[in-house]
Design brief:
Blueprint lengths: L1 E3 L1 H18 L3 H23 L13 H22 L5 E3 L7 H17 L3 H13 L8 H20 L3
Antiparallel strand pairs: 1-2
Amino acid sequence: MTINLNDLFAKQRELDAHIQANHHLTYASTREKRLLALLVELGEFANETRAFKFWSLKSPSPIEKILDEYADGMHFFLSLGIDIGSEKHIYQMEMPPLDLTNQVLQVYHLIDVMGQSLTVATFEAAFASFLNIPLLLGRGPDDVIGAYYQKLGVNYKRQQEKY
C-alpha cells in the first residue's frame, strides 16, 4: 500500500520555518535535539500501545491517543528528512514480519544508525520502517496522514500560545 507524503513534507517545511523564525534556530542547531525528540516520541507511542508491558493487564490507550503519539514521531522524521534533503516522499507501507514490540525496537535501532551517520540512505531506511508500524495496529495511510494533520494544528496552536 502506497503512502504519498508530498503534502506532509511541504506542511512540515512550513512549520519548521515558523519555529525557526520565532526561536532564531536552524536545522543544524537543532539536529541532535530533533533526533532525541524522535526517540522520546517513539517511546511515548510505545507506552500508549502497551505492547511491551507483559506485566500488565491494562488495555492500550484509545487508538486516537496512539495515533497522536505516532504523529509526533512523524513530525520529527519529516523535519529530519527535510534537513538532509531527502526527496523520497512516496513509500510502500508493508506489513512487518515482526510484532509491534520488535518493530519498535527495529525503528529505535535504525534511528540510532541514522544518528551516527545522518544520510539520505539511513534516514529513508529508518523512516520506511517507522511507516510500517501503523499496519500492525490495523491502520493505513489515511490514518497516518489524518493524525499528522490533526497534530499539525495542535503544534501551530502551541506555537501561538508560546508552549
